[in-house]
Amino acid sequence: MVVDSPIDAVYNELLNMVKELSDATIRMYEKTLETLNSLDTQRALCIIKSDTEIDTMEEELIEFATIQIVRQQPVATDLRKILMIIRLAREYERIADYTENIAEYIILIKENESLDHYEKNVDKFSKMIEIIIEMLNLVIEGLLEENKAKIKEAADMDNRVDTFYHEVMESLIQHIRIVDGKVFGTAHAILINKYLERAGDHVTNIAEEMLYALKGRRYNLG
Question: What is the DSSP secondary structure assignment for residue 39, as one 8-state letter?
Fold first, then answer.
């Protein structure tokens, strides 16, 4: 029977931790999708409160990884993988942060009854979130399976997010031009649109970090 080396055991534990972080981030986006479609302010408040759990998970992962680097003193290839996990944790934390930002704007939209931009663009916002969830699922599967094709596929899907982003931005800018006195709600929609676009960019960053750790060279997938 093949017994894992201590550093293999550390890496496997880190994989488990980043998988839990990924799962928690995906749940945040699933809740955001539900909240965006329902404009349920109570759900939005729950999303805001949940973000602290992601922060704690990120901190625990980075602390564990840092301690293990000091204890195990891994060689170059193993060190690269551990550092990759640390970078992934930071990316997931940032991606999850965007759901908190979006939840805050959903509350403002509901409280101020600024629904023009919401009604025109909610379907596209929903599609963007669905793509981001799919990207997040695919990229973590690619890491766990060491399937480079899945990781690349996840990064390529960011083009679809960007397409929706530009369509929504054009619509909102046009709305500002022709509708007097309703810039408040449109401005919040612009910010939601930007957060979702940035979330897709961060998943692409994750894919680049994974491929670097697995193949030993940098890729620009953006």
Answer: T
- Cα four-point dihedral sign 157, 161, 164, 169: negative
Q: What angle do CA 20, 156, 44 make, to 5 degrees?
A: 45
Kindly report the pTM of this predicted structure.
0.90
Q: Are 207 and 154 a contacting pair, CB within 8 Å?
A: yes
DSSP 87-101: HHHHHHHHHHHHHHH
Distance between first and last Cα of the chain: 43
Q: Classify 1 as helix, strand or coil.
A: coil
Neighbours of 16 (CB within 10 A): 12
Confidence at residue 26, expressed as pLDDT on a 0 to 100 scale? 97
Q: Which residue type occupies 74?
A: P
Q: What is the DSSP string of 67-120?
A: HHHHHH---HHHHHHHHHHHHHHHHHHHHHHHHHHHHHHHHHHHHHT--HHHHH
Query: What's the CA dihedral at 37, 42, 45, 47 to 10 degrees?
Result: -50
pLDDT in tens, 104-128: 988 888 877 666 667 778 899 999 9
Q: How many Å apart are CA 79 and CA 27, to the nearest integer?
A: 30
User: Is the pLDDT assigned to residue 130 strictly greater than 60?
Assistant: yes
